[in-house]
Amino acid sequence: MLSRLTIKNYALIDNLDISFEGDLNVITGETGAGKSIVLGALGLILGQRAESKYFFNQQKKCVVEGFFSIADYNFKDFFSENDLDYEDETVLRREIALDGKSRAFINDTPVTLSVLKALGQQLIDIHAQHATLEISEIAFQLLVLDVMAEQQSAVANYRKTYQQYRRNQKAYQAKIDENEKAKADQDYFQYLYDELEGSLIQEEEQENLEKELNALSHAEEIKKNLYNVNAQLNGFEEAALSKIKDALTQLHSIEHYDEEIAALASRLRSCQIELKDIAEELDSLEQKTNYDENRADTINERLSIIYGLQKKHRVNTSAELLAMQRDLLEKLNQILFADEELEQLAAQLKKEEQQLAQEAKAISAKRAKVIPEIEQKVAALLAEVGMPDAKLKIEQQTLDSNGFDSNGADQIRFLFSANKGQSPNEIHKVASGGELSRLMLSIKSLIAQKTALPTIIFDEIDTGISGEVANRVGAILAELSKAMQVIAITHLPQMASKGKSHYFVHKVNEGETTYTRIKKLKDEERVLEIAKMLSGENPKESALQNARELLQN
To answer: Given 146, 192, 376, 420, which is the most exposed site by the fewest CB atoms within 10 A?
Structure first.
């Protein structure tokens, strides 16, 4: 429940701190005193839009805090899912800066406005004067049936399944479109693939051919240099190997005199052997090196094919061409097996449709079962508030045998008649403002018994009523407050007298500034306020006595 509300720098409120009780709280005050301002400030911490033009002082930011006692309600999962610290006394805060930008907090942790709103909707239901219009909205009418049927969780799960089904439907259609486009491109893909496959391109083929062609192009230079180097090693008497041979002959003649000389001779023999091998390989390579014009032409032709394919596919290497070939093969395989995949998706959709149709049918059956109960109980409540002949008629039409939408398989209409002999008709066509208020009160008081909503606020639910009817409406609010916290803004003394706690909103002038103030009335202050509501600003003793009687009752 809402235990405390603080408001700083909002509209005509500079600084306000008010505590509420857990039962029926009534708020009264003259028209324009600022009762709606309190609701507006409360709306800020419930996620409503904020504008800096409503600041009391345009040089300061606006801060609204709501303190909620939530120990008796199951909110721990919400806090866990949103990574928030849970507190039995939870604080919702909204700060609006001078530039209009706002920040939201839950227990001092910054949150998005959507998270603040999601929690606020579970804490408070504000029934303002314009809220009677929602009684004609399909969403509200379905909510009434589902709350009374105690199947909100089942309906929420159904809607999740339905949303997934709709996503799968879109994915299925996208797959069909993709498949049709792919089939249109299939011949072209096949042509490209066959061309690449027929080219028999090998990994790194381009690089190897370019190296071979480069070698062929410089064959004469390579052959000449190989010959010269071989000649310097072994081609004439002054060649390196000849000189090494002479050196070894001289070392052999003296190596028996010194072990170090023998070691050097051994090392030189190793060099001689290695140089002989090099010379032989140089000679062999030189003999094999020749310019092969036919081979060069063959390589150029092959590279021309590769370069042409690379240009066509906008790549630079053989490896990239092979990757393109694999990609084309994958596309062709996807096209080949696309119909099979579509069949699987269609079968899955069919299964989901059957599940949704079954769930929608079960939801519809429970709605049908509670309709007579709702009609009967609402009629009884309407009789209590002075409308004994009023009736609520709920029409339920089921969609086609396998038809369903996000709400299930039903089309619901709430019809209303206020008088005998009057055929039920659409509510907004036949109900007056006062009748709408009492009908909405009857419905909300009915569904409130089935929900765990901590607080409900009625903003002038007494529009269009007076006298004994107002007394009865107040009695319903008092009964409702046994199950939840009720805050009622009213201008009728009969309703004000039903409150356990009474708050008075008024304006005060200090210098050139007007302020809105609110205070909790003590017993005698309350008698005086209700007497003023009965007879005017200066009540006589009879009005005071009447006020006392109302409070006693």
So the answer is: 420
Q: For the whole model, what pTM was predicted?
A: 0.64
Euclidean distance between CA atoms 157 and 166, whole angstroms? 14
pLDDT of residue 475 exceeding 90:
no
Detail the DSSP E strand segments found in 290-437: 391-398, 410-417, 425-426
User: pLDDT of 29-49, one tens digit each?
Assistant: 887 777 878 888 888 998 887
- Cα atoms found within 13 Å of the Cα of residue 142, Cβ hemisphere only: 19
Residue 120: alpha-carbon gap to chain centroid: 18
| CB distance 472 to 526 below 8 Å | no
CA-based radius of gyration for the chain: 46
3-state secondary structure of 58: coil
> pLDDT tens-digit profile of 244-268?
888 888 888 888 888 888 898 889 8
Rounded-to-integer distance, Cα 273 and Cα 294, Å: 38
Residue ranges of domains in the chain, CATH in brackets: 1-128+460-521 (3.40.50.300), 179-336 (no CATH)
CB 418 within 8 A of CB 431: yes
Per residue in 5-38, pLDDT (tens digit) is 999 988 888 888 999 998 999 999 887 777 878 8
Cα atoms found within 13 Å of the Cα of residue 87, Cβ hemisphere only: 11
Q: What is the pLDDT of residue 95?
A: 92
Written as six digits, the tokens of 3 are 């235990």
**Burial of residue 191, with CB atoms counted within 10 A of its CB: 0-12 exposed, 13-18 middle, 19 or more buried:** exposed
136 falls in which pLDDT band (50, 70, 90)?
confident
* DSSP at 133: G
Instruction: Kindly give, in sequence order, each residue whose CB lies less than 8 Å from that of residue 189, ignoring residues fewer than 6 positions away.
Output: 328, 331, 332, 335
Contacts 24+ apart (CB under 8 A), 147-156: 147/447, 147/450, 147/451, 148/370, 148/373, 148/374, 148/446, 148/447, 148/450, 149/366, 149/367, 149/369, 149/370, 150/450, 151/363, 151/366, 154/359, 154/362, 154/363, 155/363, 155/408
